[in-house]
Amino acid sequence: MKLNRTYLFIAISSIALFIVLVIQVSWILETAKMKEALFNEKANMVLSKTAEALSADKETCRNLEGSAGTDDARTRGLFLRRKTGAGEESGRGSC
Fold first, then answer.
1. Residue 93 counted as domain residue
2. CA spacing 20 to 30 A to 21: which of 12, 29, 40, 46?
3. 8 A C-beta contact, residue 51 and residue 64
4. pLDDT, position 69
5. Is residue 95 assigned to a domain?
6. pLDDT class for 80, splitting at 50, 70, 90?
7. pLDDT confidence of 73, banded at 50, 70, 90?
């Protein structure tokens, strides 16, 4: 009789531990989803602010549009340069 109680206790304890494990895994997965959603929200905010800042700077916007589609080291750095006041380029696109 004592042997049956021991096995019953072990079985109930094992089931309880398995239930706790399932709950913890579900909490971890839910937390990961929430953190991913928070990261995506913050990334979208940063991208939006960057796009607004770039579109507000007409010169940078024109330089980016002019260098779009090229893979030249000179044109990749164009958007970082400031114009010295020499000839204005015609604006294209949404800038």
1. no
2. 40
3. no
4. 65
5. no
6. low
7. low
Q: Which two tokens stand for residue 65?
A: 């549009």
User: In 3D, which of 66, 55, 54, 73 has the Cα closest to residue 90?
Assistant: 66
Q: Is residue 73 part of a domain?
A: yes
Residues 59, 83: Cα–Cα separation, whole Å: 8
Domain-embedded: residue 88? no
Range of the domain at 23: 2-80
Q: How many domains does the chain have?
A: 1
User: Is the C-alpha dihedral spanning 74, 78, 83, 89 positive or negative?
Assistant: positive
Decide if pLDDT at 83 tops 50: no
pTM for this prediction: 0.52
Q: Which of 15, 33, 34, 95 is nearest to 61 (CA)?
A: 95
- The residues near 58 (Cβ < 8 Å, ≥ 6 apart) are 91, 95
